[in-house]
Design goal:
Number of helices: 1
Order of helices and strands: HEEEEEEEEEEEEEEEEE
Number of strands: 17
Largest sheet: 5 strands, mixed
Strand order of the largest sheet: 3-9-8-5-6
Amino acid sequence: MLKLIKIGKPFLLSLTALALMMAGCREREQVDITPPEIEEIQMNGATVTAIQIEQGTSTTISVHATDNKDLEKITLSLISDENAATPPTGVYDFTSTEMVTGEHAMVSFDLVIPDSIAGTQILRVKAVDANGYIDFLDIPFIIINSQAPSITGSTNPAANSNNEVLLEVDQNLLVSGEANDSDGLATFKVMLWDANDVVISTTDIPIINTPMAFSDASFDQAVAGQYRVVIEAIDNTGHRSLWGRFVIVD
């Protein structure tokens, strides 16, 4: 019996030491709280902080990310730009994820821009490490259509630096604009959209010549809320352009 007791005590001590060692390992595993870092974004091999691309074309976006221990994945997606006063003519819905390993990774994504899309979206790049920590970067992704009509517009009252026209209830909004296109204009109009981008009022501009201008299209919105005034022009080949400003009635 005495021998069993003497053997048992070191065994209990060994279990205690093992528990302490395991706890120490767990603590060391939790030490890495450093998120990854997106080092660089390239388009077709050139470093970019914003992207402008013609509709109907393709491009390759490359992302370089690092982590102090181990990366897990890099995701690239296109999302709507909620701060853009001019709405896009469509939304290019793109999301792709590449799984990676190691402290450095460079991955590439191939994008094909549809013909029907123009306007500003946000390119969001996200890097995730093995512990779930995240770094993300947003840059403007501007899709242009050089064949679509050009539009200039203005409002009275004028928009502020945030592209917002501030009105009081029952105050009149005046809109002026001009559109031009080498193929000629098929339709030209100015609209008031509600907060859900539903058209609630439209003024058609008769096309007499190209370029075509109008002045003081009038909107009297008596209900407080958020709106958007939008000028639309479509040329004779079907290309469409928009111009817009936010309208806040208070």
